[in-house]
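User: Hi! I'm working on a homework problem where we have to compare a predicted structure to a textbook description. Could you give me the structure for the chain below?
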Amino acid sequence: MPIKMLQIPTADGQADAFAAFPDDGGRHPGVLMYADGFGIRPVLRELAGELAGHGYYVLVPNLFYRNGPAPVIELPEYIGEEARPAVVARLMPLIEAHTTRRVLSDADAYLTFLTAQPEVCAGPVAVTGYCIGGLLATRTAAAHPGQVAALAAFHGPVGADGPDSLAGLTAEIHFGHAEGDLTPEALSRLNRVLDAAGVAYTSEIYPGTVHGFTMSDTDAFNSAALQLHWDRLLPLLGRALTKS
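Assistant: Happy to help. Predicted structure tokens:
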């Protein structure tokens, strides 16, 4: 699956990014994929390549491009229990500086760029994200209701902006939560907000999981949950996006 390195013009400069897409000369539905807080690295290329293999053009921007090209900080090959605290401590200032204003400004630039690519067909797009990227995906979908037809977020703090932030969603949604992140009671409250928004959605706790369960280069990884993620994500995109 081709991986193409890109530069996306934004209001604050150039965001480095990569895209994965089928090498068949055709045009394919666009998917904006937001990385987790650890950022672009081999596991993100694997996820994007797998999704592209199902017939999608997948754009993955460096969320923290204002601080330099990816990887913004040096990452170990495996982010285990010993390495995690130091890595998180270095990343937290970047995450805290990535304000809602920045997120929405960048989202405008990413979607403009994505839909202009010659390998992307006309029509609505999808956004998906992991960890903090799940929140960014949710903010992007809420800000672009006419353009984003599908939203998927995995082990992300999707309700962090409060119930009003979800009221404007129109995309079909899947939220896959970690058992370690969300209690059944909190899930019920979140799903009542989605019910009130009148959107088509699934929102569930993946059993036996902790935060970060999709990421195979971390000690949170759960292979069964990663497969469940694909079992939920691919049908959602198949329903919401039209392939040319």
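For your comparison, note the following. The two ends are 19 Å apart (CA to CA). Helices lie at 42-52, 84-97, 100-116, 132-143, 184-197, 223-240. Good luck with the assignment!
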